[in-house]
Amino acid sequence: MKPLAVYVHIPFCTIKCGYCDFNAYAGMDALKPAHRDALLAEIDGYADRLGASEVTSIGFGGGTPGEVPPSHIADVISAVIRHATLAPGAEVTLEANPGTSNLAYFAALRDAGVTRISLGAQSFDAAHLQFLDRIHSVDAIGASLRAARAAGIENVNLDLIYGLPGQSTDHWRDQLRHALSLGPDHLSCYALTVEEGTPLHARVERGDVTLPTDDELADMYQAAEAFLAEAGFQHYEISNWTRPGFESRHNMAYWTDRDYLGIGAGAHGFLDGQRYENVAHPRAYIESATTQASPHPVAATYELPLHTTIADWVTLRLRLVEGFRAGEFQDRFGRSLDDLLGPVLRTATEAGWLERDGNRVRLTPEGRLLHGELAVRIIDHLERTLPVSATAAQP
Predict the structure, then answer these.
(1) pTM
(2) Cys-Cys link to 133, which of 17, 26, 169, 363 (CB 3.0-4.6 A)?
């Protein structure tokens, strides 16, 4: 059986944060039962695909999946398992916000099959939480983590954001120190990104908000690398650190070119070299999933050209601190890495962004700061040197 990850998008939030550009909606709690029914219908529509697969992970994201009843989560997990074989030790992750989940809630999730909780802590500074439109308190972060532990959840991640207004590197170290004092197994640390169309973007454009410079962001990132390494956390992906053995197995499917089924309003999936995205608005998704003869509420599909497939493969693998073996590229695409990307990789190596250790290719610490720039150069080179109409064969 072919390995398969399953992503389930829950689009509901109590409030939509000003920096968020995800497919998330506030004030639609009345739709939660109907959305659950639509999820079950969509899963049934993939019965054949699931039946031929071994599900290695299930990830619930959003939105805020931790704000739907645990019985909904249990129903979805049961529906997947009814059709598919669940791999031994499969990871089942759910994102939750501090302050809206208690011991009873986490215990119900554990009983439903959830093995990992990811808490959207974001900051331990009350002023920054207010700036981010987060409705939880600083104290609620620790309380939620302790509740998850007490419920028997043995794998807990904290999401943190840096690069906030007025933030210094010393302040960011204090945030990391506070996070580690709570004993998480995994930390995801993201620089605040200003996305077009968000309220935050409008505030920055008006000059109402001033954010740290790129150099200051680089200092904060490097501070996290040093601080967390000293604390015994392994840096395994550009934005992710873990205690040994607690890597996010679900996210590894995204980073290593594996198929994943996207379920839910606005979910994205990747199957057999084809990307797709579901109908985004919850009401339209519910109608599509529950009324069509074949409940696949897909809004668009994309047959990726070869240059995009290669660029995605290389740039996602380079997010991993260990990088990848050039032989893996050869096995996947039938051509050598240097044949297709030699000039770009040589320039990056000479600049100190990449290192080649025998057959292995990885970003240097400096290169991790410039991953986005290298990704642009890779896709530009491939667009100029490969036929636009060419598509990639599946492995």
Answers:
(1) 0.94
(2) 17
